[in-house]
Automatic annotation (TrEMBL):
Residues 84-117 are annotated as: Disordered. Belongs to the SecG family. It is found in: Cell membrane. It is a multi-pass membrane protein. It comes from Sulfurifustis variabilis. One of its GO terms (cellular component) is plasma membrane. This is Protein-export membrane protein SecG. One of its GO terms (molecular function) is protein-transporting ATPase activity. It comes from the Bacteria. GO terms for biological process: intracellular protein transmembrane transport; protein secretion; protein transport by the Sec complex. It holds the Pfam family SecG. The lineage of its organism: Bacteria, Pseudomonadati, Pseudomonadota, Gammaproteobacteria, Acidiferrobacterales. The chain crosses the membrane at residues 56-75. Residues 92-117 have a biased composition (Pro residues). Its main location: membrane.
Length: 117
């Protein structure tokens, strides 16, 4: 699930970058108003701007929703909060009920060799 949301997030981010770079600045509209060849475009003189603006808004919404979903999944308590908790649990596991505890013998003292005098 997380991988799918990451892929959607990356694709929406790349799409946003491309759409923002394709859009014209506000100063370019002045030339289109006086008929500087923009009427022969695929979407008409204003159709391109409306299409790109709406598509950018949709992709921005998808991008933000995907980021919110990733933040929610990252904060869910079902997963370990850190790697150290997963590797070394904080409390040792208790023995099953009904098993007698066997005392361990003390460690043997190290033997010291006899040194001749």
């Amino acid at each position: 699930m997380r991988e799918l949301i990451i892929v959607i997030d990356i694709l929406a981010g790349l799409g946003l970058i491309v759409l923002v770079l394709l859009q014209q600045g506000k100063g370019a509209d002045m030339g289109a108003a006086f008929g500087s060849g923009a009427s022969a475009t695929l979407f008409g003189s204003r159709g391109t701007a409306n299409f790109l603006t709406r598509t950018t808004a949709v992709l921005a919404t998808v991008f933000f929703v995907a980021n919110l979903a990733l933040a929610y999944l990252a904060s869910s308590p079902s997963e370990p909060a850190s790697v150290t908790r997963e590797i070394a649990p904080s409390a040792p596991a208790a023995p099953p009920a009904g098993t007698p505890s066997v005392p361990q013998p003390p460690p043997a003292a190290p033997s010291v060799p006899d040194v001749p005098k």
